[in-house]
Amino acid sequence: MGVEALPRTIAWVAQDGADGVDGAVVRLVEQRELPARLVFWDVRCVEELEDAIASLAVRGAPALGLAGAFGVCLAGVELLSGAGDRRHGSESGFDAASHGAEAFLGALEPLARHLAAVRPTAVNLAWGVEQALGAVRAAVVQGVSARTALAHAIAQAQELAREDEVANRAIGAYGAALLPDGARVLTHCNAGSLACGFYGTALGVVYAAFEQGKLAHVYADETRPVGQGARLTMWELTQAGVPCTLQCDGMAASLMAAGKVDAVVVGADRIAANGDTANKIGTYPLAISAAYHGIPFYVAAPTSTVDASLPDGSGIPIEYRDAREVIDVEGFSPDVFNPSFDVTPAALIAGIVTERGVYEPGEILQALSL
Ligand code: MRU
Fold this sequence. Notes:
This protein is an alpha/beta fold. The chain contains 10 helices and 14 strands. The protein has 2 domains: 165 residues, Four Helix Bundle (Hemerythrin (Met), subunit A); 191 residues, Rossmann fold (3-Layer(aba) Sandwich). α2 crosses α4.
């Protein structure tokens, strides 16, 4: 099938010929159904999108950024139709018929704040929300109608989706250049096309190296507890025709000791100013193992994942998830520790691959000033 035939993970779909408002849905790949079935979910309101985000039907930092932007637009569609107030049983005080873009923005902001807080670790969710709100704010200054302001936000969100793909292809090209010929790459979680709008970050590096004929094999960590590696990474690599092998998380160090890994490439949910990086739980022990075995450990992420407001990784908010993700046996409820992410210290990272080039972790802020 090849990488180019992978599905778009998230897209705004509206009636033809309109400004993107009428009949709008956010079309998602329903990732909880993979690898058994490729199913799309047409999400019709922001509340439903929040459920999709919380339940991991859509997940992965760049895809969450797009979900944030599209979610603000969905909330806007609801406000214009009056459906939002009816559904939430609340009064936004917004009357589409008699109010302009400023009142629209005022009604949209609390809905946007709620959406941005659904998952705390990936900075991209709040970033995407802010990008769409920014378009509405700019429209308010222009004195346009609420509907036109919403159309601007939709256009901005769609532009983010286009930029996501361009950025991932650039990350792929920069990252592939770091790999030796015949590279055997180990990855964790799913930082692939399914975690983005299209193509992927860590798997973008894999796809670019594969296209160049320099990739021999990918080893995918299972990624307990939810199995993003086993279910999603193995599915998309197989679809793309990339040779791959699945192993349990605890087997990674043995693979390295056996001399089967040339590089580790992972994605990121939030990168602090000093290069400390939050990613799926189990990334940090992987970085320690790679350092012990003298294997380069790379982080691949767009610059939208950098949080310049945090000096180091100690301030990154870590999401804790339901115990039943770890063990779900009727009548048995042990105490469970289930953080969804860990923070890998910058000292263990050989380079951060962005769409603007490869940076030393401690110099990652330079990528933002380009
Ligand atoms: O809980 P998830 O599936 O959203 O976690 C995803 C990850 O940790 C990814 O590695 C990260 O978001 C980078 S995706 C390009």
